[in-house]
Specification:
This protein has 3 helices and 8 strands. 10% of the residues lie in helices and 26% in strands. The protein has a 4-stranded antiparallel sheet, with no helix packed on it. Strands 2-7-4-5 form a 4-stranded antiparallel sheet, with no helix packed on it. It has 2 domains: 110 residues, Jelly Rolls, CATH 2.60.120.10; 34 residues, no CATH class. It is mostly beta strands and 152 residues long.
Length: 152
């Protein structure tokens, strides 16, 4: 997408300044985030949240769908499928807190006419690895028999 932005008159001056694979970043300061899913992305895209706060704060990131309640103290970085998993931060205790939420927008990818990346499979990176049974954990997400990136 960055290559495409270099070709557009309205973005060619800023393309060298935006050095992220993410199409957006939200800055969240001292506020709760209600439980939600990020509906403008794709299921295979991960959001990355990074939290910075006073040592006295006690924020908790909750991934409601899977019952995960994470201590979310300063310096914590969490990546997850924000469009799939319902998530939120209900409270953070006392003190100041800031969160940088990095995300992708389908509309940006669509506007630039860039083919979306598919799921990531281990055999794309380790081609000599052979699957020996259906239960083998050979792919990061998905199933080797249905790999949309498999060209063999």
């Amino acid at each position: 997408m960055l290559r495409r932005l270099r070709d557009l008159d309205e973005t060619k001056d800023i393309d060298q300044k935006w050095q992220s694979v993410y199409t957006g970043i939200s800055v969240i300061c001292n506020r709760k985030t209600p439980f939600h899913r990020d509906t403008k992305g794709r299921p295979e895209w991960f959001d990355v949240l990074s939290s910075y706060s006073d040592p006295s704060t006690t924020p908790r990131l909750v991934l409601e769908d899977i019952g995960l309640d994470l201590q979310y103290s300063s310096g914590t970085v969490v990546g997850f499928c924000g469009s799939v998993l319902k998530h939120g931060v209900e409270a953070w205790g006392v003190g100041d807190r800031i969160c940088y939420a990095h995300f992708m927008r389908e509309s940006v990818r669509d506007r630039l006419d860039v083919t979306p990346a598919g799921w990531v499979y281990r055999h794309n990176y380790l081609p000599d690895l052979k699957k020996t049974s259906h239960d083998d954990d050979m792919c990061v997400i998905g199933d080797l028999e249905n790999d949309p990136m498999d060209v063999n």
